[in-house]
Design goal:
two-stranded antiparallel ribbon, about 140 residues, 2 strands, mainly alpha
């Protein structure tokens, strides 16, 4: 069995999620996914050559994951904040400003993990072959 074929074997789903949260290649689990924060995705893995872009607009799904994860945090925190007496006396525009200042940085923080999760789950569901790369060792 070749090394490339061995690396592309389907790992357990939780391992795929763990590697996504570490921002690592879903194939070799060593190469980085991001070039820089928050969402500059590398074109391919520098170790195994797996392309991180399957088609134009591929990471729109990652944006949806970011949106969903942000809502999973913001909505419960918002509902809990309704119980705080200090926030109840504030005008609506001040409360809106506080939520914008909370939600935007949260979305920026979650963005790289969402993109990596999108890539890893897609690879886990339907793996594709890495491109041949010439590495000097």
């Amino acid at each position: 069995m070749s090394a490339a074929r061995r690396l592309s074997a389907k790992p357990p789903f939780l391992n795929a999620v763990r590697n996504a949260l570490r921002l690592r290649c879903p194939n070799c689990r060593e190469g980085p996914v991001l070039e820089r924060w928050p969402n500059k995705i590398l074109p391919s893995c520098p170790f195994c050559g797996l392309s991180y872009f399957r088609e134009p607009g591929y990471y729109i799904g990652g944006m949806i994951v970011t949106y969903g994860l942000t809502l999973l945090v913001v909505i419960p925190v918002f509902l809990l904040s309704l119980l705080l007496p200090k926030l109840q006396g504030l005008p609506d525009y001040v409360r809106l400003g506080i939520w914008i200042l909370f939600a935007v940085p949260l979305a920026l923080f979650l963005m790289p993990y969402s993109y990596s999760l999108w890539l890893s789950v897609d690879f886990w569901l339907e793996p594709w072959e890495p491109e041949k790369i010439n590495r000097r060792e």
